[in-house]
Design goal:
Layout lengths: L1 E4 L12 H4 L1 E4 L12 E8 L2 E7 L2 E9 L2 E7 L4 E2 L15 E9 L1 E11 L2 E4 L9 E6 L6 E6 L4 H6 L9 E9 L2 E8 L2 E4 L4 E5 L1 E13 L9 H7 L18 E4 L10 E5 L1 H5 L1 H18 L3 E5 H8 L6 H15 L12 E5 L9 E3 L15 E3 L22 E5 L6 H13 L2
Parallel strand pairs: 1-5, 18-20, 19-20, 19-21, 21-24
Antiparallel strand pairs: 2-5, 3-4, 4-17, 5-6, 7-8, 8-14, 9-17, 10-16, 11-12, 13-14, 15-16, 22-23
Length: 427
Amino acid sequence: MRFVLTACMFIGLIIGAASNWGDWVEIIGSSPDSPHVPDITVFHSDSTGVTIQTMGYGYMQYDTTIDSKDFEQINIPDGYLLDCRDDTTVIGKPQIPYIKLLIAVPDSATMSYDVETSGYSVLKDMLLYPIPRIELFIDTITGAIRFGDVYAYDTTFYENTDTLCPGMLYKVVGDAHWRDQRILEVHLYPLQYAPQQNVALFYHGLDLNITYSGTVVENTRGLGPFEHIGRDILVNYPGVVLQQPQNPSPSVHYYTNLDTNNIADYIIVTHEKFLDDETVGGYIDSFAQWRVDHNKFDVGIVKMSDVYDEFLGGSSDSAKALRDFLVYVYDNWNSPSNADTHFAYCLLIGDWEYVPIETCYVDEGCTIYGTETTIWLNAYEGYFRDIDSTEINPSFSFEDIMLGRWPVDSTEVPTIVQKTVSFEKIL
């Protein structure tokens, strides 16, 4: 199939669209008419290292003609395409597919990596589509804002590069923690491309070997409420089966002394105005009691004024004070319902004037799309969910707790409590 576009037109090619639009090109196997996702097999995963084999059967391809150039865009079923969200220097260079692996590894271990190949096919006369530039579009009539891909072509790179790109078979792009589990994000590149020759190598199989050395500390505490999700998305995570004795008499706790003796599975943080109002405070208490009765959670209720007293200090960064409090609770309070002892749920009751939010502009990390033009302030609630440490890596991080906010004034609290409890009663 072929689409003819001019260079100035909005391209709008969506990553992953090849699996919907493109033609299946089989390299190995016996399913020439239907796409086959790569096989991912864990050969071993223990205290010495992990070996993961990937086997690719082919790729999705669709054709695009721009500026009299006949491009092919290639993707791997269930794979990803390199783009410029994290690296603008790649704009206009060939767009390469990759396979993403999330791998559970021990704390403190030093990693050494090796990738072995098992055969490849040579793809000739292939002009890979270039990585587009992402730009902001504002509708002059409606004012609607959207991001879209715009065609870009690095002539110098295509005409003068005679080496394979990417010049590697793998890349470790992230090393972070998800609650108590250390996780690597590794990209495997089953296709390498020589632009000057218009030739690509498609590797039938890539075997990733990671060897551990130094101090090897295995996670024995699991992932708390994310245990089942972790078993689904981490290729080598066996799961940790821990039965935490549940508190036989969970209750609602109003904490003003934020010391290390406190317990909570579920944290509610709100403004003192809400709790000091007899009616509004009564509804918050009834909701907390619902969590005790319905979920068997110990619920800790905390005023923002007490958070500020302990964590604001001489700073004016109220959002940081709230996050520092959540980090402190995560590290020091006990959660009777979670085997890893960390609390799992947090509800912020109140709009930003009552309970702070973290704000930033769209060009300061709140969005994966970069732009040189400041358009609006954006609320970044993920700031309060990634609390495994005091540092945040927006490009690779995991949210450690489940957090919600009722962005309300005090007069709206009774309504939202009644609706929430009524809805959960019928589930």
